[in-house]
Amino acid sequence: MKKIAILGAMAVAGASAGVASAATLDDVKARGKLNCGVTTGLVGFAAPNANGEWEGFDVDYCRAVAAAVLGDPTAVEFVPLTGKTRFTALASGEIDLLARNTTWTFSRDVDLKFDFVGVNYYDGQGFMVPKELGVSSAKELDGATVCIQTGTTTELNLADYFRKNNISYEPVPIETNGEAQPLYLEGACDVYTTDASGLAATRAAFENPGDHVVLPEIISKEPLGPLVRHGDNDWGDIARWTLNALIAAEEYGVTSANVAELSAAPGNSPEINRLLGTEGSLGEMLGLDADWAKRAIMVSGNYGEVFEKNIGENTPIGLARGLNAQWTDGGLMYSPPFR
Predict the structure, then answer these.
(1) What pTM did the predictor assign?
(2) How far apart are CA 100 and CA 39, in angstroms?
């Protein structure tokens, strides 16, 4: 089994090395469309709406990149991927960018030859159970059946946590969140475990969300973020600084409502001028025009606006900013300087 895992990692890394020599920016421009990998369906993060249009926190980031590069936020092909298929799709060049609630880890960065361009959501793994189970702590789950997505850090964290606490469990392997929901609701597993944000999104989609409880334990660090292939640094810079532009815009007070006005008005702070391209030549350094960040922000607003619209406390998902607040508000979010 270990040999198979090593060979699989080598195959992904080898595919990545072969594709990385191509200039992704040139490919995207020639194609006129960004191929963006997303989850197969997680409401609030990435899921088709009633009209079949993709929407969510990760989807808005993909659209911001498309706007920055192509000038059109709709020029995106969303490619739904499972935990198992996502890395092969990126390494092979099927997608240009993976924005699929993926945890930044050492092996994914180094061994699989990917570059994480930043963290767009600081998360941690949790547990959800039916309220009728009468459980108030994960340490009371000895002997439970647990729905767990294969090919994820969640699977490894689960094994570590139960071994550390000397309790047993029976895994119920699943491929996607969509597969987990009916199994969990039908009682095929006592517990569903994934990132706490995913649990909130899953619970919100239930007919009776109040019948289910997310337990208090957070058992891991899950820094989630977009990633690209090793070896194509120019494309990585665009993906990285588009995310940074959304984060910096919130700090500077640049919003979807005022970005056009600020980009046309003199007298802004130097940071805002550089961000919006009215001063300096940052766009040129990326191989883009001066308005790239302005277009990215105009799609759905700054990072805070994207968060509140899709997963914030006033949505069915109901997530507080927490660690994902700006650094000025006690969170971990801030961008390196636009200088």
Answers:
(1) 0.90
(2) 5
